[in-house]
Amino acid sequence: MSALLELQDIWVEYGDKIVLERLSIAIAERSFVAVVGASGSGKSTFLRLILGQEAPTRGQVLLGGQPMRAECGADRGVVFQRYSVFPHLTALGNVMFGLECAGAPFTGRLFGASRRAAKETAMAMLAAVGLEHSLHVYPAQMSGGMQQRLAIAQALVKHPRILLLDEPFGALDPGIRLDMHELITRLWQEHGLTIVMVTHDISEAFKLGTRVLAFDKRRHDPQAPHRFGATVTYDLPLDRKTFPPAALVEALGDPDPQPSLLQ
Ligand SMILES: Nc1ncnc2c1ncn2[C@@H]1O[C@H](COP(=O)(O)OP(=O)(O)OP(=O)(O)O)[C@@H](O)[C@H]1O
Prior knowledge:
The longest helix is centred in the last third of the chain and has 18 residues, at about 175-190. The protein has a domain at about 1-75 and about 195-263: 3-Layer(aba) Sandwich (Rossmann fold). The protein contains 7 helices and 10 strands. Strand 4 (about 60-65) and strand 5 (about 65) form a beta hairpin. The chain has a 6-stranded mixed beta sheet, with helices on both faces. The protein has helices at about 45-50, 90-105, 110-130, 145-155, 175-190, 200-210, 245-250; strands spanning about 5-15, 15-30, 30-35, 60-65, 65, 75-80, 160-165, 195-200, 210-215, 230-235. Residues about 255-263 have low confidence and may be disordered. Adenosine-5'-triphosphate binds near residues 41 and 43. Adenosine-5'-triphosphate binds near residues 17, 39, 42, 43 and 44. Keywords: ATP-binding, Cell membrane, Membrane, Nucleotide-binding, Translocase, Transport. GO terms for molecular function: ATP binding.
C-alpha cells in the first residue's frame, strides 16, 4: 500500500518547550490508525499538524507525496469529541452547508438543480449514518450519539482523503459507543477511508485500529520537563486479534482492557 501521508523528522516547539521531536511516520491509504498516549503527550498536536491547523517547527508533512500547506483543506475531515456541528442548523442544513460552501464559495448558497443534487447527496449521507428520520432536527434536540453521527456525516460528505477523529466517542455511554464502533468500521470499509483517531481508550484503539501508535517521551529531564518532546514509542500493526502489550497498558494506566472487545 502506498503512503498517503508522510511525516518526516517533525519537531513542534513553542518557545523553549519541545512538544514533539523526531517524529517520522508514513500512513498508508485505507489504514485505520489509532493514536494513544498519556495526557499532554502531543496527540492533539499531531492531529492539528495533519489537519493543517499547525505548521511544524522543523520537518515536513507530505500528503500524496506533495508538501502539505498549513491550512485546512477539503481533503481532510475532522470530528471532535463535541461541538463539531453548527447548533443553528438542522441535520440536513449541517450536511448541506459544506456542500454549498464548496459549490458556491462566495455566497454559500446553491440554487436549482445543483441545490437539489446537494440535497440528495446530503440525505444519502445522513441515511448512511442512520439519521434518515432526523433530517429536520437541530443538534440540541439530539442525543450525544446522534450528534456524533451527524458530525461524521458532515465530515464525510465532502469525501475527504483522510478522516481525523479526536476522541470522537469519549463522551458517549458504553452501549452507544459500541454502536458507533460498528458505524465507523462500516463507513471505513465502504468508503475506503484513511482514518487517524486519537483515543484515551486503549481497548477501543486495539479494537478499531489496523495500527496503533503510542506517543511518549523517550528522554526525560526532571529538572526541565519541557526540554524533550514526545514521539512515537510504539508502532504496532494489528491483525485485529493483537492484545495491547503489558508495558503499554501499564504506561497508559488502562484499568481493564477487555479481551472480549479485541476479538
Ligand atoms: N499553543 C501552545 N503553546 C504552548 N504549549 C502548547 C500549545 N499547544 C499545546 N501545548 C502543549 O503541548 C503539549 C501537548 O499538548 P496536546 O494537547 O497535543 O497533548 P494531548 O496528548 O492531546 O493531551 P490530552 O490527552 O490531554 O488531550 C502540552 O504540554 C500542551 O500544554
